[in-house]
Amino acid sequence: MSKQRDEHTEDLLRKTEANLRFILDSSDTAYILLDNQLNIITSNRIAHQWTTSEFDRNLIDRSNFIDFIPDKYKQPAITVMQNAINGTPFIYEDKYTKRDGAVSWYHVRFAGIKDDTGSIIGLCIAASDTTRYRSAQGEIKSMNESLEKKVKERTAELEIANKELEAFTYSVSHDLMAPLRIIDGFSQVLLDDYRNKLDEEGFQTIQVIKRNATRMGDLVNDLLNLARLGRANLIKRNVNMNDLVTSVIDEMRFTTNKLAAKIKLKELKHADCDQVLIKQVWSNLLSNAIKYSKNRENPFIEIGCLEQNGQTVYYIKDNGVGFDLQYAGKLFGVFQRLHKPSEFPGTGVGLAIVHRIVTRHLGKVWADAKPNEGAVFYFTLP
């Protein structure tokens, strides 16, 4: 029975050693296992290849590993190995010049081998060739630097193009105002002074001219406002949002005839922002909410804020006509409209102004809606 156990144990040890040999020889890392006297217990294929090609010597089991170390590395290596056997592992990475002049980088680790009780019974030396990895790192670094340079150059080009476009928009819009005022003014003169000389068709034609001149003037003014936003400096301070929105509501009630919408203002968190510009955001959003809910029997608007992913999100919700979310991407573009001007007047620039202001504050703005079920506009101010 004892003989069978011994045979079984020996067979198990042989299988374990064979498995260990297979694992070590399959690795791309050189492994050398030593006992406490630094004699070689075993080593793998990569370790043999390295010592054979560089030192013309084969690693032989039970021979002392110190004999294989070049003289210039011998003393520091002995110190490192003794420290590892005494419980202090050592890891380093350094370059090595091979006999053919090629330079390689190696990552080397010296660590003690422990038995079941935790006692160190030997030493494991593991050396990995990291030359290709370092070369790849260098290439990646070079590519990143090149990419960063291109991004900076492209960003500078875009900034110049944006400034030129804003200057062009401002200049054209400003120059358009004079002829529009003339058209509007002379149309009014015709209506006031020559009404009796005009037939009904002529009278209606002049009214159409005047209405469209007025609409064109509104568009130009909105374009000028949009262009100014790109040129104005942000003046940030801590703003009481409740006071700001209350002032917008009061102004809206004063300027809007028969403001029938019931407005519920919840408690809003203060924000660090440009008060003048964010007042414009609230004014445009509230104006939209009033406009698109005015035909409801009981128009209702709610203004509040909520916490989302650790960030304050402001919102304004109405029970108006809403819109189909598949067209939401058009909302914040210049002159983009989801409803006909005959249904709801406007220039299609108001939400573009909202988007410009919020993004200049490094925030985000988005919307949620359903047709005939109202809309909610959200924005953040980091």
CATH-level-4 superfamily name of the largest domain = Histidine kinase-like ATPase, C-terminal domain
List unreliable stretches of 5+ residues.
none
Helix content: 40-55%
Q: Compute the gyration radius: what is it?
A: 40 Å
Number of contiguous helices:
8
Mean pLDDT over the full residue set:
81
Topology, number of strands: 12
CATH architecture heading of the largest domain: 2-Layer Sandwich
Task: Look at the helices and sheets and give the structural class.
Answer: alpha+beta
Instruction: Spell the H/E element sequence.
Output: HEEHHEEEHHEHEEHEEHEE
Q: Beta-sheet strand percentage?
A: 15-25%
Distance between the termini: 78 Å
Fill in the CATH topology of the largest domain. Heat Shock Protein 90
Described by the principal axes of the CA atoms, the overall outline is elongated
* Overall number of domains: 3
Name of the level-1 CATH class of the largest domain: Alpha Beta
How would a textbook summarize the main sheet? 5 strands, antiparallel
Strand order of the largest sheet: 2-1-5-4-3
Describe what you observe in this structure.
The chain contains eight helices and twelve strands. 50% of the residues lie in helices and 21% in strands. The strands form three sheets. Strands 2-1-5-4-3 form a five-stranded antiparallel β-sheet, sandwiched between helices. Strands 7-9-10-12-11 form a five-stranded mixed β-sheet. A two-stranded antiparallel ribbon has the order 6-8. The chain is of the alpha+beta class and 382 residues long. The chain has helices at residues 2-26, 45-55, 71-85, 131-193, 200-231, 241-255, 275-293, 350-360, and strands at 30-35, 40-43, 90-97, 103-114, 120-129, 236-239, 262-265, 271-274, 300-308, 311-318, 365-369, 375-380. The longest helix is centred in the middle third of the chain and has 63 residues, at 131-193. Helix 4 packs antiparallel against helix 5, helix 5 (200-231) runs parallel beside helix 8 (350-360) and helix 6 (241-255) packs across helix 7 (275-293). The radius of gyration is 40 Å and the shape is elongated. The chain has three domains: 2-129, PAS domain (Beta-Lactamase), CATH 3.30.450; 160-231; 236-380, Heat Shock Protein 90 (2-Layer Sandwich), CATH 3.30.565.
